[in-house]
């Protein structure tokens, strides 16, 4: 976990240069799998005073249905962002920052995925002019400035979800493999940014990229 904290400090410096937001980082707290929960966690309506007051708290596990959940994965309700998604076992969720960015960390590996809901406040932080742009167009607007510091491929649609696109590439300054993704959730857009150390074995990189895309695929609102 110490290595991850060092990596986070490095990412902060790079994200400033790429017009990506820097948020305070807190060590994730272990979360029990949904199957082991004895009672469902209370869901706080998004935008309420209680939700705003708990913006730094860990999101609640839930067994409410989420689209396309792979077998064995944990369903997760994130009231601070008004979304639900699923993640593999062994990943820890944490809400970071006043605007509520969800971080997912692989506890026994190097995977790290950021999930952000685009709105009028968060859009400028990612260089997005139109919060309602089509996912593919929004992805292009995010990747364009990032390409100044690395190399990225062409946008690819996420298998089984026509409203989601991802791009894989390498950030040369931070020396990491990176995935950018955008999915439509109703009339909103959700951004996913996946990080993998560049020296990671290619088979592991492919595995993590696949998990990043699958997590994005499960996002619903």
* Beta-strand content estimate: 25-35%
How much helix is in the residues? 10-25%
Main pleated-sheet profile: 8 strands, antiparallel
Q: Element order, helices and strands?
A: HHEEEEEEHEEEEEH
Low-confidence stretches: 1-57, 61-66
Total strand count, please? 11
The helix count comes to 4
How far is the first residue's CA from the last residue's CA? 31 Å
Mean pLDDT: 78
| Second-tier CATH architecture | 3-Layer(aba) Sandwich
Structural class: alpha+beta
Task: Determine the CATH topology.
Answer: Protein Transport Mog1p, Chain A
- How many structurally independent domains? 1
The gross shape turns out to be globular
CATH top level class name = Alpha Beta
Which value, in Å, is the CA radius of gyration? 16 Å
In brief:
With 221 residues, this protein is of the alpha+beta class. It contains four helices and eleven strands.
What descriptors fit this protein?
221 residues, alpha+beta, Protein Transport Mog1p, Chain A, eight-stranded antiparallel sheet, three-stranded antiparallel sheet, 4 helices, 22% helix, 31% strand
Characterize the structure shown.
22% of the residues lie in helices and 31% in strands. The chain contains four helices and eleven strands. Strands 4, 5, 6, 7, 8, 9, 10 and 11 form an eight-stranded antiparallel beta sheet that branches. Strands 1-2-3 form a three-stranded antiparallel beta sheet. The longest helix has 16 residues, at 2-17.
